[in-house]
Amino acid sequence: MTTELSTKLRPDEICEKLGIGTSTYYNRLKYLGIEASRDADGPYLNAEQMKLMEELSEHIRQTGKMQGFGGGGQLALSESSGLASALEIPVQPEIPGSEEDGDGLEELIREAAELKVQQVAMPELIKLHLAAGMTEDDLPADLKAKLQAVRDAANPKPNAASIAQQLLQRHRNKNQQKNPETK
Fold this sequence. Notes:
56% helix
């Protein structure tokens, strides 16, 4: 993840490149103490600031938290290194959605909700795709019978007695129209 030196990187480009949301972007700027520059097109970061953002993203990818990030090639203390306890510097894990994380709670809840939708929808989508690929030969006998019953109800076979009754009724109506006084 390296960036050209003469580039002005806009927030939406950075969010897309790092795979983060807008609120996370601003939380990271605040954490790093970066103030974006502005021009006629709006806020932007320079290459050096973007490099710090990329390094922080990599640190978060590896550790799952912003805390402990030294930035700019500095030594970052980690809980497992033993240096933190030797120097008596308390290192606490960052809790997503905590006060230090600001708007991160909303983003965390949103991401969890999206995962839940995928979790709930997946079995239904699989069933739908399975059904789309099936033929009548794949159906069990009881469902084949149900399908045939639906077809029979939708396309009833003519009954000889009902056809005869309809023809006789038509004949009578025709005769009554020809001879109205026979009634």
